């Protein structure tokens, strides 16, 4: 576990978080989704969260984003408790969710417009379009973009707010395998350029190993953090190196997906 100073404004702290929802079949009772989740992210850390479908990964990200509230426990960005959505916590989903009626430039600007900062930060719009390689697509509408380009626009739209923490909910899940690998490098490049603290939900073990400083593995619902693995491989990582494959095999075995030998 990386030590996190509670006064550092860039760190995320999740402490003893519990969350339940009304049970679908018996609405008067509640079904627990998150069970005593605790972890913290050091500033600039990139941490992945993997776990079976329905274990509560998106629920956890929504809590951190401030879109829903916990039953119990604390959520903090630096010393500040999380109480509502805020631009300091960017959220990028599997679907890029671009506004279809706005051009790429207007989509990327939209957070600045909403916060009344466009005039002050206008020059950053070009910088972020360059950063994600979309400068020649500024005036294009989302339906003309490929999946990878749309997801890059969504990343720029989140990053332009200079989030202290970027929450990524399977952001590359809808892309084909080749685009996905290229986009992993893009996200790493953005992370290295901006040192944004990132929490990445993924179903893809290779993606988690390729990208993260640490991988947290969750149990089936109610989701608990069952194991945390430090990924100490040097960057840039080689997907076919012996150490990479060994770690992959360890995680697969842990998840019981390695198949019978
Ligand atoms: N608003 C809600 N009301 C009731 N139940 C909900 C609500 N949101 C999520 N759940 C339930 O909580 C559980 C966890 O859902 P969640 O979407 O967080 O899982 P997940 O780990 O992100 O799954 P996946 O990998 O498929 O995206 C599921 O059983 C889901 O049905
Ligand atoms: Mg989910």
Number of helices: 7
Mean pLDDT: 92
Question: Number of domains in the coordinates?
Answer: 1
Largest sheet strand order? 6-7-8-3-9-10
CATH superfamily: P-loop containing nucleotide triphosphate hydrolases
Please trace the helix and strand order, writing H or E for each element: EEEHEEEHHHEHEHEEH
**What's the helical proportion of residues?**
25-40%
The poorly predicted ranges are none
As a percent range, the share of strand residues is 15-25%
Quaternary state of this entry equals single chain
Number of strands: 10
**Annotated CATH topology:** Rossmann fold
Bound molecules: adenosine-5'-triphosphate, magnesium ion
Describe this structure in words.
- This protein is an alpha/beta fold and 261 residues long.
- The chain contains seven helices and ten strands.
- Strands 6-7-8-3-9-10 form a six-stranded mixed sheet, sandwiched between helices. A four-stranded antiparallel sheet has the order 2-1-4-5, covered by helices on one side.
- Strand 9 and strand 10 form a beta hairpin.
- The longest helix is centred in the last third of the chain and has 18 residues.
- 37% of the residues are buried.
- It binds adenosine-5'-triphosphate and magnesium ion.
- The site of adenosine-5'-triphosphate (ATP) has 10 residues, from helix 1.
